[in-house]
Design brief:
330 residues, alpha/beta, 5-stranded parallel sheet, 3-stranded antiparallel sheet, 9 helices
């Protein structure tokens, strides 16, 4: 037998080759036949208790799981009688707890540290027009809180919800969104957004821009997973990367370049941890939405928001690949 017949690529499945896995389905006008992008490590089924958190794309995962009858955890439900539009505006039912978007690995670790009694949540607040805003989740009350007491009570409920959700979960889904962040110079405390954009006041003596690199993101995501396991050793973690580009960048680069850098770091970190940890998996929703074969078809006109059909395609891929690996009863 010749060397050409025994090279390491001989006998690989069709999914390993661009022509058969990507180009030929496109030539036949059937990009939806590009399948099998994910070989899941562990089954995720309706019997699981699934917590979702992270960047904005994570909300689609939670809704799709819930719609399919999966055990999506809503640990901080809306008060009875609150209108649907008010629930949405106040981030009830968006994630498993009312943190709003958690964009970075560092902020996930920060929230878990506060919630799991590893550190005291600092009493920071912002003000605007006589209202009080939470710097760590400024969008959850669009008009702000009416008092510091109301803000403190809301924080306490969210921290309790995180504790409950993490302790009862079998699967924790986290969507990495950004590497760029704003922190306090003296303490390293990270805000959800830059002070002064929604409320508060930006002070260059107190606040500075931080663009988390690979090493820092890897470290802090590892810290977050360690915190999860400190109270729930059996929890499994599913990582995704948001396909939503940056709204704006403070890096000095063009926003397109900055988006590429940020997503590359996040994707590399997710892949590194998933490759090294049997209890962590990576689901390629990012590749499904942004991949060249799909030519941006899943984005809205602003090229940021993902269309409903894109979300549906991602979640169909999720359930199909789970079923292919573990059977329909996974």
């Amino acid at each position: 037998m010749s060397d050409a017949q025994t090279n390491p690529y001989s006998g690989l499945p069709s999914e390993a080759f661009w022509r058969s896995a990507v180009a030929e389905p496109l030539t036949r006008g059937a990009p939806e036949r590009i399948a099998g992008l994910w070989s899941p490590k562990f089954p995720i089924g309706p019997q699981d208790r699934i917590v979702t958190a992270g960047s904005c794309f994570a909300q689609h995962i939670g809704r799709a799981l819930s719609a399919r009858g999966y055990g999506w955890v809503d640990a901080e439900p809306a008060p009875a009688g609150l209108a649907p539009e008010a629930r949405l505006a106040r981030h009830y039912g968006t994630f498993s707890f009312r943190t709003g978007n958690i964009y970075t690995a560092n902020m996930l670790a920060q929230w878990l540290d506060w919630a799991l009694d590893k550190g005291q949540m600092p009493e920071r607040h912002w003000e605007r027009d006589g209202r009080v805003y939470d710097p760590f989740r400024p969008a959850i009350e669009p008009q702000g809180f009416d008092s510091l007491a109301a803000l403190a009570a809301s924080r306490a409920r969210t921290l309790a919800a995180i504790r409950e959700a993490v302790r009862e979960a079998t699967v924790f889904v986290f969507t990495l969104g950004l590497t760029e962040s704003w922190q306090e110079r003296e303490t390293g405390l990270e805000y959800a957004i830059c002070p002064g954009t929604v409320a508060g006041r930006f002070d260059p003596e107190r606040h500075h821009f931080v663009n988390h690199d690979f090493d820092d993101t890897l470290l802090r995501l590892g810290d977050a997973i360690g915190l999860l396991r400190s109270v729930n050793p059996a929890i499994r973690v599913l990582l995704t990367v948001s396909p939503v580009p940056l709204t704006a960048t403070a890096s000095g680069d063009h926003v397109l370049v900055a988006t590429g850098w940020s997503k590359a770091v996040l994707r590399a970190v997710a892949g590194e941890i998933a490759a090294e940890d049997a209890g962590v998996d990576y689901f390629p929703s990012y590749e499904i939405i942004t991949g060249p074969p799909f030519a941006g078809r899943f984005y809205a006109e602003n090229l940021r928001q993902v269309r409903p059909e894109g979300v549906a395609f991602v979640m169909d891929s999720f359930f199909r690949d789970q079923s292919a690996r573990f059977g329909s009863a996974a």
